[in-house]
């Protein structure tokens, strides 16, 4: 069984999305779920984004480029785990409210498309990813599950521009939940409750009250929950202790899963790669390993 859970959270002091005038900016209040206040545009989520396959491919290529660039920045001798998709998606929500030099710098660093294309393209990607969960599972195995959720938490009384709220609602399905960041304990508790719910209670206390300041105006959160069965299962009885090669040339003895089967495989001078599909074959895990005498960090990208 495979389970992958990611969350990404941005705490922002925004100037492009609105002002401190006590105005709701055309928002309407509603109930997203019992006990949760919601302020959002009247716009419903766009089900068929006006974007071409080529534009979606350009966004995917840009996201991948950012992922490898970030890996090179963060990689080293220690373990590194992060979700480039979650980071790009959360920043894309912020990008929708950016203008001028901030907008240009975000586009360059994150390899985003122009505003009019970026958000419909991400909407199309999210729609396709959500649809993957309809293709797997069944039989004796647990069903294929892939949930992607976005949320925006805004300072009460802060006026968010109507165009920004319409982009959040129309392209990301995200309403804005008003909170008082002047009460960091209560604000972080609300956000953490959402994260915990969206990750099947696997991630708790993501947001510390210490990172919320009097200048915080918007918190953007993204959660990805993935759970699926292997297409070709690993039998527990086949797990054996074996040698794991360390970056410094040493070895560590660890339990290694084993099976004999046919999988897509590729190799080069510096790497070996194998693709392990999940049940339903709508998603897979791509594993890339450096050859013993090669540094993975120097070869990726």
UniProtKB/TrEMBL annotation:
InterPro entries attached to this UniProt entry: Serpin_dom (IPR023796), Serpin_fam (IPR000215), Serpin_sf (IPR036186), Serpin_sf_1 (IPR042178), Serpin_sf_2 (IPR042185)
One annotated GO molecular function: serine-type endopeptidase inhibitor activity
One Pfam family, short name: Serpin
GO cellular component: extracellular space
Highest taxon of the lineage: Bacteria
Domain Serpin: 68-301
Family: Belongs to the serpin family.
Name the record gives this protein: Serpin domain-containing protein
């Amino acid at each position: 069984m495979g389970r992958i859970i990611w969350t990404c959270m941005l705490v922002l002091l925004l100037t492009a999305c609105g002002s401190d005038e006590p105005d709701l900016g055309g928002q309407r209040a509603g109930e997203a779920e019992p006990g949760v206040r919601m302020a959002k545009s009247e716009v419903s989520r766009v089900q068929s984004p006006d974007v071409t396959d080529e534009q979606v491919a350009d966004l995917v290529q840009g996201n991948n480029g950012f992922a490898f660039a970030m890996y090179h920045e963060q990689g080293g001798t220690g373990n590194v785990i992060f979700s480039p998709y979650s980071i790009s998606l959360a920043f894309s929500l912020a990008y929708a409210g950016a203008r001028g030099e901030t907008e240009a710098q975000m586009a360059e660093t994150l390899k985003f498309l122009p505003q009019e294309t970026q958000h419909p393209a991400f909407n199309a990607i999210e729609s396709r990813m959500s649809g993957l969960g309809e293709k797997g599972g069944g039989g004796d195995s647990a069903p294929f599950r892939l949930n992607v959720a976005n949320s925006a938490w805004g300072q009460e009384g802060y006026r968010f521009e109507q165009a920004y709220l319409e982009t959040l609602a129309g392209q990301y399905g995200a309403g804005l939940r008003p909170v008082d960041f002047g009460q960091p304990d209560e604000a972080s508790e609300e956000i953490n409750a959402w994260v915990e719910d969206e990750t099947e209670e696997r991630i708790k206390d993501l947001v510390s009250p210490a990172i919320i300041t009097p200048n915080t105006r918007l918190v953007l959160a993204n959660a990805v929950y993935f759970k699926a069965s292997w297409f070709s299962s690993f039998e527990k009885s086949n797990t054996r202790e074996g040698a794991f090669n360390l970056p410094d040339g040493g070895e560590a003895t660890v339990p290694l899963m084993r099976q004999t089967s046919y999988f897509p495989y590729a190799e080069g001078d510096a790497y070996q790669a194998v693709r392990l599909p999940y049940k339903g074959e709508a998603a897979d895990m791509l594993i890339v390993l450096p050859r013993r005498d090669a540094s993975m960090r120097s070869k990726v990208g």
